[in-house]
Predict the structure.
Amino acid sequence: MPELGKRLKLLREEKGLSLEEAGEELNIKSEDLRALEEEDFFSFPDRQFAVTVLNLYVDFLGLDKEQANQEFSQVWPEFGPLRTFGKRLFQKPKQNSPQRQYPSRRKAPLFALALVLCGGIFLYSSYSESFFGGQGDKKIQPEETTGTVSGSEQVPDEASELELDPTDVKTEVVGGEAIFLEITTPGGECWLEVVADGEQVCYLLVPQNTKPLTFTAYEEMSVLIGDAAAAKIKCNGKDLGLLGNRGVVIKRVFLTKDYKG
């Protein structure tokens, strides 16, 4: 990708747009666009995030997406280890990290005496518990929480909030040698995951009324949408209409006629 960043910048300038203006058009931070143009890959959290931003920017500028991704893939495997090393190299040390302390020689006898006392207390408590454990009222142990309140209402776990579990899955065979999808979000923001020919090409929270997102596959494409009422899909130019009700997680799988599985 030695020349891709320069081409992105040149095409943007030909459109008469600043980085901030291009970012507003795409609903992407201008810092991320600048990182692509300057090939500053340390700015991206991971490869998938960088690819998603690249695809949106390439579509916006009118570059060949497949060629751009090929150029990007040639440099990322070499850059990835350097990026990881750089993050570790410049990572700030943790503050207030506990340091292991050792007793001084003057305090060694007191330290040993304290150990003896603690051992005696432990033995006494163990003996008394085993001897008197069956007598008297039993201790009431607190019930383990199961993550539910008010009957069966689930309490959302922060770690699983982004795990989309589709309740509506449909598969459609597309006539043609390729699959071309256009996705918009007129009904609100929603999480979107797109897997084209086995490779995840998009996973992000898409704002409402974003610019059309376009994706291409030659055998199989799956789309996972976090809110069926928020998004619209056009497959090879055909509008699929209403996808589902508000808040419903759906998955749509599109296959070409030559799909072999």
Confidence is low (pLDDT under 50) at residues 80-105, 134-162.
